[in-house]
Design goal:
This protein is of the alpha/beta class. The protein has one domain: Lipoprotein like domain (Double Stranded RNA Binding Domain), CATH 3.30.160.150. It contains seven helices and eight strands, in the order H-E-E-H-E-E-H-E-E-H-E-E-H-H-H. The strands form two sheets. The protein has a five-stranded mixed beta sheet. A three-stranded mixed beta sheet has the order 1-4-3. A hairpin with a 2-residue loop joins strand 3 and strand 4. Helix 3 packs parallel to helix 5. About 6% of the residues have low confidence.
């Protein structure tokens, strides 16, 4: 008798979960993200948040919409502030003012959602697949970096399907920020660009200090010639 009651209870719970997963969900992420405490490198970057990225609304299936545009812009602004000491954020390449910055253009390749009715697990999952096009100011390609992010709820017993997808999406965004901070300067092409920029900066500093120490001005040369 006890086993029958337990089986009935389990069946009811499963039906509740599955019925919740079959409903529509429209989610808008409004979360703020904490400032990054990492010390940035003495480098310049321009991040191009194109309108399609800043207003991005994912539609992973016919019943789900996730407005992540503004939230992912806030997240990436904070993350890049921990990577570069000089930053500018623009909405198109035409607005770039820096002469020696790395140009970073993020985009979303795809957003996927998995519910308990899809994965037979007691969780909601969200995958956000990013791509970062890295270029010089002149438009020369440095690299194109694929950056997947993943988030899931602790369990499916949330207030609603929308609430569960929202939580999983926020966790996925945080995962994207963590990966960016940990892996960006490990990209071989980025590492090479950093080395070139640091050498260029050192050469400029050496050139700017050379006239005061080792070069003779025309006036000094003429004065020395007249005294002979």
């Amino acid at each position: 008798m006890i086993m029958i009651k337990m089986n009935r209870f389990a069946a009811i719970i499963i039906l509740i979960i599955l019925s919740g997963c079959s409903t529509s969900a429209s989610v808008q992420l409004t979360n703020e993200f904490p400032q990054v405490l990492a010390k940035p490198k003495p480098l310049s970057a321009t991040v191009v948040f194109e309108p399609s990225f800043a207003t991005y609304v994912a539609k992973p299936n016919a019943k789900t919409m996730i407005d992540i545009g503004a939230a992912q812009v806030r997240l990436l602004r904070n993350a890049f502030a921990g990577l570069f000491s000089k930053l500018e954020f623009v909405s198109s390449r035409e607005e770039i003012t820096s002469e020696n910055a790395m140009v970073i253009i993020p985009s979303v390749r795809e957003v996927q959602v998995s519910t308990p009715s899809d994965n037979y697990l007691n969780v909601f999952e969200v995958w956000i697949k990013y791509n970062l096009d890295l270029e010089t100011v002149d438009g020369e390609a440095i690299d194109s970096w694929f950056m997947p992010a993943y988030g899931k709820t602790p369990d499916a017993f949330m207030a609603s399907k929308g609430g569960a997808i929202e939580e999983a999406s926020i966790i996925a965004l945080r995962d994207a920020g963590a990966k960016l901070m940990l892996d960006f300067y490990r990209i071989p092409a980025v590492n090479n660009w950093v080395a070139q920029e640091l050498r260029r900066s050192q050469q400029l500093q050496a050139t700017s200090s050379a006239p005061a120490d080792s070069q003779t001005s025309p006036q000094q040369a003429n004065s020395a010639e007249a005294s002979k």
